[in-house]
Amino acid sequence: MDGNASALAQHYSMGKLFKFVLPTIFAVLLASLYSIVDGIFVSNFGGTTAFAAINQVSPVFMIVAAIGFMFGTGGSALVGKVLGEGDHEKAKGLFSFFAYVLIAIGIACSIILWFTLEPILVALGVTETMMPYCLAYSHIIIPAITLFMLQFFFQSFLATAKKPGLGLLFTVLAGVTNVVGDAILVGMVSQGDPTRAVQGAAIATACGLFVGGVVPLIYFACKNKSLLRLGKPLKSGRDLAKACGNGSSEFFTNISGSVINVVYNSLFLYMIGDLGVAAYGTVGYVNSIFTAIATGFVIGVGPLFAYNFGAGNTDNLKNLFKKSMIIVIIFSVVSTVIIELLSHPLANAFSHGDEQLVQITVDGLSIFTLSFLFKGIPTFGSGLFTSLNNGKVSAIISIVRTLVFNLATIVAVPVIFFHIWGSSYEAAFYGVWYSVVFSELLATIMTLIFFKKYKARYQYA
Q1: For burial by CB atoms within 10 Å, which of 245, 247, 324, 332 has the most?
Q2: Measuring CA to CA, how many Å separate 23 from each of 65, 248, 421?
Q3: pLDDT tens per residue across span 56-106
Q4: Nearest to 360 by CA among 347, 371, 369
Q5: pTM of the prediction?
Q6: Domain boundaries, the chain
């Protein structure tokens, strides 16, 4: 067993575990800042409509990018298990095969989206005022979709390769590229022109994606000291299907989340107009920060579960599960408190001086943030079963949580509020926001039931 493999097999203290996953957490968090940085610059230099347009079109790209997440999380779980079984050559072959297939899919998606985007946006209800900005942004992002997928893909595999620090470095470089690009192209060059602002944000994002997707590709293509390297692929349709099955939960989580974002955008567009979409966009950015940190932890700790599951080390599985649950619960509570305290300054960051927008955002954020108390456990639960190569349970948690519970509560909760307060704007507004809280509460209960049901099979508790 080499040094990298032995590091995956060791017994982790709380401090060592946190140190191991921290680079991956930061890497995923920084990757999520692309859209947030774009939003800050566009909202302040391009105006509310341009900002709302980016929020309307972003779910389309997140759905496609979710394929990279699926290949990354599902593939790394399978490769990590193979590494735990001691077959390093097979692990490298599968890793290479997954990467090459993903690149081919990314190119195909870019071609399809280039010719179908406008009808898709019309179907999503994009208004005539938003459409020019949506298209201006999209025509620059579409060619970079493969890079978007690769960045998500390599974030997972750098942790599996026992190189989470490199993942953080690549993402920092990509993030700095994006921020500098926004500062120059949006803050300086756009001169307040909304079209130039969204185009500048798109160029900055594409440049960041180039760094985040191509640099790790070059690293793995060259001789390196990690557990993995791109080379001759091990062409296995069965393993590809298994990897996609393992990662289907992450795929459906992103797709369902994007669908739900479309539903919420449509509701707020109907109730409040562009201001409602802009307010939900700000809340969505805050939510993406929480989700990125939680997802980063899951991606970071996943290879440890996968490796020790493959090696049959139940003592380590129990240790990892107990410490992971403690970290997730503490993070959920602390995040809720912090965001509640910072709701007003966060709203101001995206308001460009619009007091009405600030108030709508603060009202929504103060309610939405309560869902953070419950989001951590289902996120961890889905990732845990992915790393244990149980894609079925992982997918059930993700799909039911992000689609079934969300859609059910977004209908039921406002109806209950109408019954209590009568048919009013306040009942609809608060009912929509509170629906997220109840949805995540139900998801937590469901996840805990699965934990109890499968603990004997996997012996993690």
Answers
A1: 247
A2: 21, 24, 47
A3: 787 788 778 888 888 988 888 888 888 888 888 898 999 999 999 999 999
A4: 347
A5: 0.69
A6: 3-458
